[in-house]
Amino acid sequence: MFFKKKKKTCLAIVPAAGSSSRMKEFGNKLFLEVGGIPVILRTLQVLQSCSEIDAIIIPTREDSIEEISALCKNNSIDKVKAVVAGGKSRTESVLKGILASDKKFDLIAIHDAARPFVSFEIIEKTVSAARYYHAAAPGVSIKDTVKQVKGELIEKTIPRETLCAIQTPQVFDADIITAALVKAIDEDIPITDDCSAVENIGMKVFITEGSYLNIKITTPEDILFAEVIAANQEKRG
What we know:
The chain is 35% helix and 22% strand. The strands form three sheets. Strands 1, 4, 5, 6, 7, 10, 11 and 12 form an eight-stranded mixed β-sheet that branches. The chain has helices spanning 39-49, 65-74, 90-99, 120-133, 174-186, 194-200, 220-236; strands at residues 10-13, 33-34, 37-38, 55-60, 80-85, 107-110, 135-141, 146-150, 153-158, 164-166, 170-173, 206-209.
């Protein structure tokens, strides 16, 4: 007799507690409209429609909880199970999101709230890789020549062949990422993404194929690029 292997459940954490300091006078980038739709809503709509994602939790700023909750309710984003107060750092916010779940999930997918153009294919490939390798993230090759500098002088050129720009979602076994984040916080280790926390406990992260369209909106210039991407998606239907 053959038994079908049970699908691993996946909780998406969407950290949305950043200060948007580089957006200057534009304010909170997550509520800026791109093609008439707020950035964070675009992100949530993709996760809502992806069959690999079973539930979503959003750690955010205290002053954004009500607005994000209303966006979810008014747009039928019912996979969102909680909108909670984030922490002082991304690491703390992600951990708070994981611990806010009242259910145990096999995998945790952490996706930037400001990456609204992630595709189903990227999510599916990365979740699938994490099922096998326990830790996976999408990445793209670096296009520019990268220099190591000191002050205003170039010290050396870094070979592009060894470099990769890492995107999200970054997907991990739930126990692994939880332990990694706790360790990073306890030891006050500065990390810029969740892969860094997992690397810090000796885990290797498998790289899946990302996309140059899977941009993170960080500066005002990114909004211009985002409008172009949104318009092209609209044309393609």
